[in-house]
Write a structure and sequence with these properties.
This protein is of the alpha/beta class. The protein is built from 14 helices and 24 strands. Helix 1 runs parallel beside helix 7 and helix 8 runs parallel beside helix 12. The protein binds uridine-diphosphate-2(N-acetylglucosaminyl) butyric acid.
Length: 424
């Protein structure tokens, strides 16, 4: 077990490059189920969720190696069609093998993900969509079992624009007989990248990035050869790190087009944001102005940046309202931020944040991936020392965030932590 130690108070300076996107890598890795042969996926972040996905693919019979961000996956034809409980319980995104398994092999047995720290997170839309495509789906002994001879194209209208649901259905429909349309589809940049890669593999997908995705099924796909886009949530987290410390940082290679909602809010808060061919440059000035945010599906303000933005608003000159509309329980960072001196009142799905002049370092507990990032951000600016426990949450989705921050001047390091519950 490790903890992160931060001595706050350094204005970050310099330049840094974000890693490849976790939430793009996971579905692209799952796409290797769709075609036999040698796949190559570059710029894959070395984070726990990626390693879990590689383990899952190996269990299915795909030979996977990862070195310096390059994943090579040799799919000789699968030996198994099952995503077992021991993997799915550690990573919900394991469910994204469901679509490609049924689409390519006509069968899948995937452990049903339970609720998680941030909400109940059902997969009813994934299942409804697969049924529309002709799969028989049942729930037995905690497993979703799906089968079909060959899926047939259909029009699927999602009740809400689920990200992994859209990815699952796009992959399933890619090999279905005839045309499909996914309406009310998720529009995230990760969906667009997934469609581009599937098309390079031989799929016929149009409209990704809009609410209607049209897919003309093909009989066969070839192996993927692609480079994962930069992680927009890591970029956003580093942007706030620069802003909250009053620093001046260039996010090399970052694209403002993927950050519109966040950038608008940062500018409203008084942060200076510039874009050039080199990337995005952030300058934090004095205390931020208070800004209200409401999380929404892309292109709205991302729920994956809510906790980090709250860390910034905790220090604003006034009161801001942060409303969480995607997940019902994504406020676990609030209690920990309060231990550092934040003044936050929770009122159902919204947090009323009364800005304070300064935070003081404290021992705090990370509860989920983005909550951990918000504690790191608060620690960067708090007076004295912050110790963050359970940093394995951070390592699920950020590749060496502490190292990147250290490069920008932050006094941040890791050390051994006793497992929770140990006395003495
Ligand atoms: N939902 C349903 N039924 C479904 C599917 C979703 O009711 O069948 C609900 C969820 O409970 C939630 C909302 O729809 O309230 C949106 O969930 P979505 O399915 O879009 O989330 P996801 O696909 O499970 C992905 C990211 C999350 C990110 C969300 C929202 C991956 C691997 N995960 O999850 O990332 O928060 O989209 O943008 O892409 C993270 O990286 O920290 C993370 C949690």
């Amino acid at each position: 077990m490790q903890k992160i130690l931060i001595e706050g108070g350094v204005a970050l300076k310099g330049e840094v490059k974000a890693s490849g996107a976790k939430n793009s890598s996971l579905p692209l890795l799952m796409a290797t189920i769709l075609a036999t042969g040698e796949h190559c996926i570059r710029n894959v972040p070395n984070v726990v969720d990626v390693r879990t996905t590689c383990s899952l693919l190996r269990r299915l019979g795909i030979e996977v190696t990862m070195s310096r961000g390059v994943v090579r996956a040799n799919n000789p034809g699968l030996e198994s069609y099952e995503a077992p409980y021991d993997l799915v319980k550690t990573m919900r995104a394991s469910v994204v093998c469901l679509g490609p398994l049924v689409g390519r092999y006509g069968r899948a047995r995937v452990s049903m993900p339970g609720g998680c720290a941030i909400g109940a997170r059902p997969i009813d839309q994934h299942i409804k969509g697969l049924e529309k495509l002709g799969a028989k789906v049942s729930l037995n002994h905690g497993y979703v079992e799906a089968s079909a001879r060959r899926l047939t194209g259909a029009k699927i209208v999602l009740d809400l624009p689920t990200v992994t649901g859209t990815e699952n259905l796009m992959m399933a429909a890619a090999l279905a007989k005839g045309e499909s349309e996914i309406r009310n589809a998720a529009r995230e940049p990760e969906i667009v990248q997934m469609a581009e890669v599937l098309n390079q593999m031989g799929a016929r997908i149009q409209g990704a990035g809009s609410e209607s995705i049209k897919i003309e099924g093909v009989t066969q796909l070839g192996p993927a050869d692609c480079t994962v886009m930069a992680d927009r949530i890591e970029v956003g987290t580093l942007m706030i790190a620069a802003a909250i410390t009053g620093g001046d940082v260039l996010l090399r290679g970052a694209r403002a087009a993927h950050q519109t909602a966040l950038i608008e809010k940062l500018i409203e808060a008084g942060v200076v944001v510039g874009e050039s061919e080199h990337g995005i440059r952030i300058k934090g000035l004095a205390r931020p102005k208070p800004v209200d945010i409401t999380t929404q599906p892309y292109p709205g303000f991302p729920t994956d940046m809510q906790a980090q933005f709250m860390a910034l608003m905790v220090l604003a000159k006034g009161t801001s309202i942060i409303s969480e509309h995607i997940f019902e329980n994504r406020f676990m960072h609030v209690q920990e931020l309060k231990r550092m001196g934040a003044r936050i009142k929770l009122e159902g799905a919204r947090a009323v944040v009364r800005g304070v002049k300064k935070l003081s370092g404290a021992e705090v507990m990370a509860t989920d991936l983005r909550a951990s990032a918000s504690l790191v951000l608060a620690g960067l600016v708090a007076g004295g020392r912050t110790e963050i426990y359970r940093v394995y949450h951070l390592d699920r989705g950020y590749q060496k965030l502490d190292k990147k921050l250290r490069k920008l001047g932050a006094r941040i390091r890791r050390s051994k932590a006793r497992p929770p519950g140990t006395i003495g």
